[in-house]
Amino acid sequence: MDAISAYTYSTAAWLSIQAVPLLLFPRLITAMLAPDEYRSTTSSSSSSPSHSLALPTLVLTTAFHACTAFYAYMQYTTTSQTAFALAVTGSGGLAAMGVWCMLFGTGGAGGKRQKNRVSGWPFKNQAVELSKLDRKGKRI
Fold first, then answer.
1. What is the tens place of the pLDDT at every residue in 17-76?
2. What pTM does this model have?
3. How far apart are CA 134 and CA 117, in angstroms?
4. What's the angle, vertex CA 111, arms to CA 130 and CA 58, rounded to 5?
5. At what angle do helices 26-33 and 3-24 cross, to 10 degrees?
6. CA gap 61, 86 in Å, rounded
């Protein structure tokens, strides 16, 4: 599994973990996150990363996780609720993983162009010299 697939599955799992309690117990979650003066007395009862949408999805979800982590951090500093600290940890980690995938996980860099940029000192790059001779037609 490559980095972008791991990021995609981690994002899906994190958002699912956040969505299930909201779908099953919406009043409980709302009551838990409400300030004390507003609390009610309710009782608690693509698998291919080379797909054309992989990079835009990566950029948007990374921005979403970064904004969510920032918002949760601001809420945590004012309310000191543990739920916001967990949100900072989860969303911040996924935002960092998304940035890492954007920088290093695409796999498109390097390759053939990189060998031309290798310095000839102190050793010669014979592969480049042979390919240059082939292009000029001087190789025997």
1. 888 888 888 787 677 767 665 555 544 444 555 567 778 888 888 999 999 999 999 999
2. 0.52
3. 18
4. 170
5. 90
6. 18
Residue entry with tokens 């009782």:
43
Query: How crowded is residue 8: how many other Cβ atoms within 10 Å of its Cβ?
Result: 21
How far apart are the C-alpha atoms of 51 and 48, rounded to whole Å? 6
Q: Which own/partner pairs from 65-73 qualify as long-range (CB within 8 Å, at least 24 positions apart)? A: 65/11, 65/91, 65/92, 65/94, 65/95, 65/98, 66/91, 66/92, 66/95, 66/98, 69/95
Asked if residues 90 and 113 have their Cβ atoms less than 8 Å apart, the reply is no
Question: DSSP assignment of the chain, as one string?
Answer: --HHHHHHHHHHHHHHHHHHHHHH-HHHHHHHHS-GGG----------TTSTTHHHHHHHHHHHHHHHHHHHHHHHHHH--HHHHHHHHHHHHHHHHHHHHHHHSS--SSTHHHHTT---SSS--HHHHHHHHHHHT---
CA–CA–CA angle 36, 89, 3 (5° rounding):
150
* CA-based nearest residue to 76, from 66, 86, 67: 86
